[in-house]
Amino acid sequence: MAVIDDVINSSASTDQLSNFIDNNSTLIYDFFISQSYDSLLKHREKIESYILPYYKIYRNLDFTNNKNRLFVLSLLDVSERFGFHGEFQDLYNLCKRKNISIGSRLEASSKFLVGIRRILDYTNRMPEIIDLLAYSFLHEEDSEEKVVATLIHFYTEVLQNFGSENLNGVKEFRAILLESLSVDDKKFLVHSIIIELLNETIDDIHQVYNSIHQKLDLLLERSREFLPFDISSHLIELDTEYSQMLDSIQDRFLEIRNLCANLYANVASDDIFYSLQRGVKVLTEQNQLLAYINSYGKMHYAKVMSAFSAFSSQEITSKIEIYDWGCGQGLASVCFLEYLSDRAETTDIEAITLIEPSEIALKRASLHIRKFNKSTGIYTINKDLDSLHNDDFSSNETNTKIQLFSNILDIDFFSMTDLILKIKKNFSGLNYFICVSPYVSDYKTQRLDNFVEAFENYDSFDLIQSVTERKGEWNGTNWTRVIRVFKVKI
User: Fold this and answer.
1) Which helix (H) or strand (E) segment is 42 a member of?
2) Which is the most buried residue in 253, 298, 314, 399, by most CB within 10 A?
3) pLDDT tens-digit profile of 122-156?
4) Distance (Å, rounded) from C-alpha 58 to C-alpha 87?
């Protein structure tokens, strides 16, 4: 039975629904937000039959509770995704009344789904919509495709509502939209599908509308695809110019950052920076590797080091295994090794396992770690989190596991439910979890908290550090951070 069935069955009263949400927040997030578009599409009719008929139930939830806020945001997100107009408007108004922050992309959607009367309203609101989508692309969303899809929805609304009665007006709107997207600081929003759609002939409105939705469906489904994975368990970058340069610097993270910054200065461009998608995009090119560390290295270093400050390996008497989930270029592992070295701690590291869907980033991660540790075995798993199997892991129960989750737990594109089950299945014994993310929104922070909560029922659970700081709250920086450090014996 799908989660939407459980939601419907649990919505006889507000109290019943609140209890269901409290116990199943991770499942709800996975179903509405993290699930692939193609999979969610199968439940479209049932979702639509829930949102308005049960409005009087969920509107009375206690919205000081982040899980309840997340539930309503999930319904709002899926309403925008499927173009449910009435549903979106009611949910949007509920969010405004309850002071629920919805994020820039959904705020942009409200500008063309709520309160529109004339075609001129779309044109007048266009600058604000584009500004909101640009901000969402750069600072909030995990996928450029979701932002592009919302931009396509904007165009589709104009076409659908005025294409038959005011075709010239639609053509004029389209020309203004193309011009607005061509300015330098918005060009990163111009996806190839956008150009293709805006240049299509629109004499047959029905045909164009169907064509748009076919391409939109393909766009949203493609956002879940990765490059083919390398099955080798010992991937490492060898005999490259970068590896030779790495040999000549000290084994300090900031030395690596300076090296990357100097190399990136020779190739720097806005296109490369925007392709990082605020650091969550699966990297495929050498220049992206340099750009990531140049742009985010210092911030990454400060966050993970502040998390390690709550951790003491002196109480660990057994050998340790390090697991770096969504490791990118291995920065969290490198910082951890530097942290241990600075404190002259003699922790016996038996193995370091790196998990990452980008092959080029994974090879560089191995290279970076070998710079800091010459002897420990490095094992690579070139997969995204949803592709992992139990037989990918071989952990020793008597070893202490250091689980590093840096800038990964708040990302939408994996099943948190499946990840938690894999961890509980494969990592018996003592585990330390160091979880670090930027603060993006309350609902993304709740996703990270849902992960922590999944281990709270163990008697051995101990929350060592919990920090949530928005922009301006982290003293001495202009960055944000969400940190959860805990230990538990599974």
Assistant:
1) none
2) 253
3) 999 999 999 999 999 888 887 788 888 899 889 88
4) 13
